[in-house]
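Session log. Operator J.P. requested a structure for one protein chain; no other inputs attached. Running the standard single-chain path with token output.
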Amino acid sequence: MTTNETAVAEKLLQVKAIQLNLDAPYTWASGWKSPIYCDNRRVLSFPFVREFIKSEMCNVIFDQFEDGALLAGVATAGIAWGAMAADQLKLPYIYVRPKPKEHGLGNQIEGYYEAGQKVVVIEDLISTGKSSLQVVGVLRAKGMEVVGMVSIFDYGFPNAARNFAEAGVKLRTLTNYPTLVRLAVEKQLFTSKQHEILLKWQADPGNWQGK
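Structure written below.
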């Protein structure tokens, strides 16, 4: 657990971006039931925390993907973070929709880009990685080279790591589920019993039926 991972996790807890509900678990778009929910959009409402996380994201991009010449935000949650990072790093910016617009120009990629550009994808969080990797496929289909992806938070599911490895995408995240849950227990925000339930859920979220 690095200092930066801990610091970012602490900021997420500070603004209550992490919600816990064991009695009425949250339902994800995939249909999975989850006792915990990470809402990074909430961070946008807190200027100093927002600035800290933006700076951490830029540090990772600069350090890990120095050949990245274009940032691409994943709609919708990654759009704001990608735009802020591109502004600070003075890089061109685009964002990618889940599917083409059904009106207007019918764009799926918004902004100016060229085939051959090296792109860093900016994401809000990673669960299975499926929707994020779909964006990678869209960019590659347009002839761009995806050099990696940066996300604020990663649930750390084994199948996500496998999906990114199979797609040949280098993923870097600012913080992760084990770090955040461990810190919440240390701060007595979660009990040891809740910690046990949360770790059990993470190990097999698709088959988790509740506490």
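Operator note: The chain has a mean pLDDT of 94.
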